């Protein structure tokens, strides 16, 4: 469970999150919507301690993130907007192994996790391939595998479809759908809900650092109007 309790955060004295409260349960597929600049990335970066609230608290599974960063980063796997920025190794397998290696796990456990994570994103057996030779969609899937290798309860993705062509979008979407069906919580930030609205249990939309909409997708559609969010045609 991820819990925001009255979280206030400002960049250079400009408030970005304004006393925001929110609870995300395990297993939920949540869309975090909102126009560019509405604070989605800032909110996500609080989920695993990349940013810390000026006031208020963020808790993962009941523990304040800052009290146990390793636990928070194990429970909440983060996939950034530009996967290229998050790779640390030249090859697929080495990159996916990086997180579990940092947890100090046994080699056999690391290998098991890498294999399972690559399997989950349809990249099984491609450990030795160079990341820079992969397509954009494959790179996105490797980034997701890197997060999955931590065996997170929640997978958090920031605009994961940016720069992907249609087949790649479909492939990443299919992987997210399968992961969600298997019980992994998904928190996906996007300003474009067209492909994803049907997958979600809940839509949270932000405006000016506040939650403007929070509810099931079928109820959210009309409320999303005026928030500069793209919704699917009826
Ligand atoms: P979104 O993800 O919804 O596009 P962000 O969380 O990236 O929104 O940004 C919210 C606001 O915070 C914007 O006004 C943005 O300009 C500002 N902001 C984001 N990152 C920084 C930063 N590193 N320094 C100063 N302002 C920032």
TrEMBL record:
This chain's function reads: Probably part of an ABC transporter complex. Responsible for energy coupling to the transport system.
Membrane topology, as annotated, equals:
Peripheral membrane protein
Q: Name one Pfam family in it.
A: ABC_tran
Q: Where is the composition biased (Basic and acidic residues)?
A: 223-234
Q: Which domain of life is it from?
A: Archaea
- Gene3D superfamilies cross-referenced by the UniProt entry: P-loop containing nucleotide triphosphate hydrolases
User: PROSITE patterns under this entry?
Assistant: ABC_TRANSPORTER_1, ABC_TRANSPORTER_2
An annotated GO cellular component of this protein is:
ATP-binding cassette (ABC) transporter complex
Write out the similarity annotation.
Belongs to the ABC transporter superfamily.
- Give me the ranges of the annotated region Disordered: 213-234
User: What are the record keywords, sorted?
Assistant: ATP-binding, Cell membrane, Membrane, Nucleotide-binding, Translocase, Transport
ABC transporter domain mapped to chain residues: 2-233
Which compartment or compartments is the protein found in?
Cell membrane
What protein name is recorded for this chain?
Answer: ABC transporter ATP-binding protein
Molecular function (Gene Ontology), one example? ATPase-coupled transmembrane transporter activity
């Amino acid at each position: 469970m991820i819990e925001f309790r009255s979280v206030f955060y400002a960049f250079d004295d400009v408030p970005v999150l304004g006393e925001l409260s929110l609870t995300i349960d395990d297993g939920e597929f949540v869309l975090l919507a909102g126009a560019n600049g509405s604070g989605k990335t800032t909110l996500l970066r609080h989920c695993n301690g990349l940013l810390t609230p000026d006031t208020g608290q963020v808790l993962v599974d009941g523990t304040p993130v800052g009290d146990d960063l390793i636990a928070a980063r194990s429970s909440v796997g983060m996939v950034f907007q530009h996967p290229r920025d998050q790779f640390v190794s030249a090859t697929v397998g080495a990159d996916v192994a990086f997180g579990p290696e940092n947890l100090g796990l046994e080699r056999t456990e690391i290998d098991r996790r890498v294999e399972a994570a690559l399997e989950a994103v349809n990249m099984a057996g491609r450990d030795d391939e160079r990341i820079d030779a992969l397509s954009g969609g494959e790179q996105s899937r490797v980034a997701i595998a890197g997060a999955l290798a931590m065996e997170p309860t929640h997978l958090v993705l920031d605009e994961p479809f940016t720069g992907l062509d249609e087949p790649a979008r479909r492939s990443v979407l299919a992987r997210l759908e399968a992961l969600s069906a298997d019980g992994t919580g998904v928190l996906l930030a996007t300003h474009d809900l067209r492909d994803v609205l049907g997958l979600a249990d809940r839509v949270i939309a932000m405006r000016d650092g506040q939650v403007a909409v929070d509810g099931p997708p079928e109820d959210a559609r009309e409320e999303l109007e005026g928030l500069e969010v793209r919704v699917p045609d009826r």
